[in-house]
Amino acid sequence: MTIDISKHYCLNPAGFHRIASTNWGALHHARTAICAHGFSRNGRDFDRLAAALAERDYRVYCPDAVGRGASDWLTQRSHYNYDQYVRDSATLVSHATASYAEASQTPAPPHLDWIGTSMGGMVGMMLAARPGTPIRRLVLNDIGACISAQSLNRIGAYVSTTPTFATLAAYQAHLAEIHASFGPLGDAGWRHLAEHSYRLENGRYLPHYDPAIASAFDEPIEEDVETWDLWTAIEVPTLIIRGEQSDLLSAETLDRMVELRPDTQVVEIADAGHAPALMREQELEPILAFLMDSAAD
Hints:
Blueprint: E1 3-12, E2 15-24, E3 31-36, H1 47-54, E4 58-63, H2 82-104, E5 111-117, H3 119-128, E6 135-141, E7 146-147, H4 149-159, H5 168-178, H6 186-195, E8 198-201, E9 204-207, E10 225-226, H7 228-233, E11 238-243, H8 251-260, E12 265-269, H9 281-292
Parallel strand pairs: 3-4, 3-5, 5-6, 6-11, 11-12
Antiparallel strand pairs: 1-2, 2-4, 7-10, 8-9
Protein name: Alpha/beta hydrolase
Pfam family, one: Abhydrolase_6
Organism: Salinisphaera orenii YIM 95161
C-alpha cells in the first residue's frame, strides 16, 4: 500500500507555515478523501479508516492541523481559529486536486469526500456550505449545528494544561482516561493513539500540540454555539455519526438536524461518547458503505 508524508505551505496573518499530512493510496485514484481530526488530536488517528479507503482505490489525506502533530506552530496565539483552519484546508483541497490532475493526466477534479471528527467536522461543514464546494460527500463524527457550552468547557479544561509524563505508558494511561468517551479501544488502540501523539521535552512525554491552541478557551464559554444557517446551507449527502453518550452532539440537536435535512443518514455508536475513535469495525463499516454507495453520486 502506498503511504507518504507531504508538507505544503499555508498563509497566516503573520507569515507562512507548513501543514503536514500522512497520505494513503495512489495519486491517480479518482476518489479522494480528506480526514480531519479533533481539536487536540492529529491525522494519525485515521490510520485504520485511511487504510480501508486506500484498499478501495481512494487517495486519502490525513493532515495535522496547524499547531498539532508534525505541522508548524503559529507565532501568535490568537491566530489559532476556525478562519485559519478553513484556509489551510482549502489549500490542501487545491493541493489534492492538482496532484490528482498531474498523476492522472486529466483536468477533471477528483471525487472529493470529507470525513471530520469534532473540530474537523466543523471545518468540513464550513467548506461544504460554501458555493461551488468541491466536496461530494460529508461525514460528521460527533459534531453538529449546536454545541453545548458545557462540553466545550470540558475540552478547554484539559487542553489548557500541559501535563508531562515520565514514560510513554503513563502518557497512554492519561489518554485512556481523558478520552475514555472514544470507546473501548483496548490496549492496542490506546497504544496506537499514544505512539502517534506525543513529543519529548527534557526527557518527558507531552501531548504533541502547541499549548497555545487553547486560546479559544482563554475565557469560559457561557453560551452554546449554534450554526443552523451553516447546516441548512449544505446540500451534499451527509452521514452523521454520534456517540450515544456524547455531551457535545445531543440527541435533540441530531433530531433537529435530520428534521431540517431529512436525507441525512445517521449512525449511533452505543458504547461511545464524544467522539467515536473510528478505529473499530462498527464505526468503519457505515462510513465505507456511505462513501462507496454509487447511487448517491
